[in-house]
């Protein structure tokens, strides 16, 4: 009996060792353009911690903040070619490849809240439609995190449409430049990391950088004493997109952990910024920064200009399909009238 017991213990020990040896591991290098001290940077760090903890250490992530490996606009290609494994910036940076990326990055003038925009992705057929686009470029869209409407930072008043005339501001590439040119502004495309210096030196009058709270974290209102709040013009869908070969090689439970953690990040982001932006607005007013809420008439003028510009960017089959998908869903939500 003693020998059998020892044999059983030995067999069990061998099985445990074998199971441990078979445990699969995934190591990922991910870059975000957000600085670690911003709210989005802290949320990205929480995502990393969630994934590593839920996977019991089977997934390890090395996160590169503030676009420290390559420029934000180059992150997608760096992941696709293996310099990195995943891109945690946003699809709108890739409109030069295909204008369809505008409509998975920032549709502009469409959805009013992060919850509406996320519902298109997860319940309006958006993820399947977007996935076709990403797979074309050897990338896999894991999910979105949407912090809500952005606010400008400006060294001049930005209280309405009339203030846009001859207003020089940092703009991301893509559809935004066309919309604001129609409204009289002078958009200047520059890298996210160059905004602070450009404001400081007067190269630009203002910047489309991020949400109010993130802008505070970037120190923009130390220089720019004007902003609009609530925001209206831009609600980027920051993404997590991974090299498709890397993603396909991951075990199914690792993929599931990454995807569900992104859904958690999306909710955390929307809720966090609803609170943090309100807190930032109160503090900025106390610090003497002028916050302007645009009139309904000016907001409608912007939406009209934005929606008139969508067809100009729907110049590929992928872009046409995404615009149609958005319009169908926006109509269901009552945000666009037939």
Automatic annotation (TrEMBL):
Keywords (A to Z) from UniProt: Periplasm, Signal
Main location: periplasm
Any single GO CC term annotated in Swiss-Prot or TrEMBL for this entry: periplasmic space
Subcellular location: Periplasm
Cleavable signal peptide: 1-23
Keyword Acyltransferase: no
Keyword Signal belongs to the record: yes
GO biological process: transmembrane transport
PANTHER family documented for this protein: EXTRACYTOPLASMIC SOLUTE RECEPTOR PROTEIN, PTHR33376
This protein's name: TRAP-type mannitol/chloroaromatic compound transport system, substrate-binding protein
Lineage, broadest ranks: Bacteria, Pseudomonadati, Pseudomonadota, Alphaproteobacteria, Rhodobacterales
